[in-house]
Amino acid sequence: TGSLIEQLTTEKYECMVCCEVVRIVAPVWSCQNCYHVFHLNCIKKWARSPASQAEDGNSGWRCPACQNASVQVPKTYTCFCGKVHNPEWNRNEIPHSCGELCGKRRQCLDCPHLCNILCHPGPCPSCPAFVTKTCECGQTSHSVRCGQSTKIHCSNVCGNTLNCGKHSCTQVCHAGKCSPCQLTVQQVCYCGSNFKEVLCGSKEELSDGFGSFSCQNICGKKLNCGRHNCKQVCHPQPCQLCPRLPQVVYRCPCGQTPLSKLLELGCVERKICTDPIPSCGKTCGKPLSCGSYEFIHTCESLCHEGDCRPCSHTSNIYCRCGFKKKVTAITFMCDKRCNKKRSCGRHKCNEVCCVDTEHKCSLVCGRKLNCGLHRCEEPCHRGSCQTCWQTSFDELTCYCGESVIYPPVPCGTQPPECKKTCTRPHDCDHPVYHTCHSEEKCPPCTYLTQKWCMGKHELDSPICGTLFYPHRAIRYRRICQVQIQAPESGDCSPCVLAVLSFQSCVMEPIYMLPQIKSTTLFFRIAAISIATKLTDLQLGDSVEISRLITKKEMKQARLQCDEECLALQRNRRLAEALEIDDNSDPFNIRSSGPKYSDLLKEDARRDLKFVSDIEKEMRLLVEAVNKGKHTKKSHCYPPMNRDHRRIIHELAQVYGIESVSYDNEPKRNVVITAVKGKSVCPSNTLTSVLDKEMQSRPAPSLPHYKQTDKSSGSSGLSKPLKEEPVIDYFDVQD
């Protein structure tokens, strides 16, 4: 109120509709809900505009400030208290006021006094009067400010009568009604055999004088005859008359003949209820529970007292589910099992002769909850399970402990996100750039390092932790020979060469040991030495095989140098004497034609059709990219096994095509890309090379058996070597 008076007097108050200053002589309108002041003309225009209409369309227009809906559109300029129309401005009074007492009712519902200050904008101040109020229980009174909303409580016991009308409230002075009586009373059933306790004053406490409730047992009280007991279920009101009293029974047991006629025929008149009821001698004829709607079976015994005998007839009776029927005297159950789905939609009913309509599932759900640790213990149901109800009261922190989620922590909650740098131990000593994480394995190090290739041909800056296989500077197939030191063996140390073949676009190697005759030993050395010591090989170090294989395998690994070894040694000495570089090709021998590896040729012989199709596809791709407008063209092969992918990678290297393996097993596939000017078709395809070799190959001879050293003590003949698949290190998944 004070702020509004000051701003209106100094003409600093702005209308929210036109954003202009409200002058002291301008007609205004004040909202009675938020007390904002607007120009009268502005509020009239706003009330008639479509933007001011309420959402339901029937509540009138909305105040621009508080969105309170009003039905009537303001038409006249009045003072703030509403008594004077078009009030004149007086420099000694508040602008837009009449200068008289406000007289409006205050918002407090308990205050009966009117506002006693001059006509003003804004809400009326609280009432300054004091009144006397009693406490909640009415035993004490206090003088408080008028309109005070707080309740008065004393320290006395309430003492008001409770709902039962018998007991008093024992709570300390409180607000609202007293709580229902919590004392219990004992009730007896109508027949007087059972008791129960109920709250005092409840509806169950009401009694009709015979008892308060039915125990659902047989009444058993003595009837008025004094000889028979009541056979009704526990009931209110007195028991009925004995159904065998002479004044109650008027007919014979079957009900066909009145007793008066039987008395005329000489039957003895009944005096008391225990006297037998005379029989008429006719067939009973009472309907039995068996039979059907079309044919009702009746009792065939003579008129008798008591229950009728079982029916002696047979009839076509359906089982309870209605699937089968047979001739029998009693109801039966068929052996058909219900095939309908239960209410859960997962299990079958499987009940014998089922008559259930809902087929509720009685099994436990047992599915894993969203937390992944506990299982649903609810009855088997449709749809998703509820969230895990278990809660931990321990703090959940990130790995470094900086971020914390305080208990209670719902089960399955992930550790909090942390912005701090990861503090886990890392394989390298480079700076860490990733944040704290909950995964056990850290992301790869992104620090740039400098590494040589295995043959120390090229230096590059790969990311830390990745293998470096230079391929950009290699225009032809470069074979990098890495010598692995073998144990000393007498006269000549056998040389073992590991040939590392690089693809044109993917930094994944394929290792082969062409000098080792035993494939079993090759796999052991390749898997243990080359794969596990790859970092040492990258740095140019050698690997000692004697620490990785047994002594027996050492003896088997001692190979005699053959003619190829001698030729290599002779060429190496000649090259050193003439100072010829190993990478040079002065006689254009290497570039004379494509060179296919023995392993690739062997694979082509096993599956010639597959290799022929791959070469055909590569030739078409290379020809299309060299003749077309685009610089690159790609082809995606369907998912295939590792051996077929290795064949594609090796053939792509011959054609100068880039090849990359994608996806995980068993959907891993290869995508090849031909580049204009780089990809070329070789002069001789692999299939044509194999045809020439087949034509020049001599007739097949008997299998060759290796002759072992006689001094070793083994037999003279050994079994042929068993072929085993070659490990494709190029196609290994991450």
TrEMBL record:
<keyword id="KW-0677">Repeat</keyword>
<keyword id="KW-0863">Zinc-finger</keyword>
<dbReference type="GO" id="GO:0000981">
    <property type="term" value="F:DNA-binding transcription factor activity, RNA polymerase II-specific"/>
</dbReference>
<dbReference type="GO" id="GO:0016740">
    <property type="term" value="F:transferase activity"/>
</dbReference>
<protein>
    <recommendedName>
        <fullName>Transcriptional repressor NF-X1</fullName>
    </recommendedName>
</protein>
<feature type="domain" description="R3H">
    <location>
        <begin position="608"/>
        <end position="676"/>
    </location>
</feature>
<dbReference type="InterPro" id="IPR001841">
    <property type="entry name" value="Znf_RING"/>
</dbReference>
<keyword id="KW-0597">Phosphoprotein</keyword>
<dbReference type="InterPro" id="IPR000967">
    <property type="entry name" value="Znf_NFX1"/>
</dbReference>
<dbReference type="InterPro" id="IPR019786">
    <property type="entry name" value="Zinc_finger_PHD-type_CS"/>
</dbReference>
<keyword id="KW-0808">Transferase</keyword>
<feature type="domain" description="PHD-type">
    <location>
        <begin position="12"/>
        <end position="69"/>
    </location>
</feature>
<feature type="domain" description="RING-type">
    <location>
        <begin position="15"/>
        <end position="67"/>
    </location>
</feature>
<keyword id="KW-0833">Ubl conjugation pathway</keyword>
<dbReference type="InterPro" id="IPR034078">
    <property type="entry name" value="NFX1_fam"/>
</dbReference>
<dbReference type="InterPro" id="IPR034076">
    <property type="entry name" value="R3H_NF-X1"/>
</dbReference>
<keyword id="KW-0238">DNA-binding</keyword>
<dbReference type="Pfam" id="PF01422">
    <property type="entry name" value="zf-NF-X1"/>
</dbReference>
<keyword id="KW-0805">Transcription regulation</keyword>
<keyword id="KW-0862">Zinc</keyword>
<dbReference type="GO" id="GO:0000977">
    <property type="term" value="F:RNA polymerase II transcription regulatory region sequence-specific DNA binding"/>
</dbReference>
<dbReference type="InterPro" id="IPR036867">
    <property type="entry name" value="R3H_dom_sf"/>
</dbReference>
<keyword id="KW-0804">Transcription</keyword>
<dbReference type="InterPro" id="IPR019787">
    <property type="entry name" value="Znf_PHD-finger"/>
</dbReference>
<keyword id="KW-0479">Metal-binding</keyword>
<dbReference type="GO" id="GO:0000122">
    <property type="term" value="P:negative regulation of transcription by RNA polymerase II"/>
</dbReference>
<keyword id="KW-0539">Nucleus</keyword>
<dbReference type="GO" id="GO:0005634">
    <property type="term" value="C:nucleus"/>
</dbReference>
<dbReference type="GO" id="GO:0008270">
    <property type="term" value="F:zinc ion binding"/>
</dbReference>
<keyword id="KW-0678">Repressor</keyword>
<dbReference type="Pfam" id="PF01424">
    <property type="entry name" value="R3H"/>
</dbReference>
<feature type="compositionally biased region" description="Low complexity">
    <location>
        <begin position="710"/>
        <end position="719"/>
    </location>
</feature>
<feature type="region of interest" description="Disordered">
    <location>
        <begin position="691"/>
        <end position="734"/>
    </location>
</feature>
<dbReference type="InterPro" id="IPR001374">
    <property type="entry name" value="R3H_dom"/>
</dbReference>
<comment type="similarity">
    <text>Belongs to the NFX1 family.</text>
</comment>
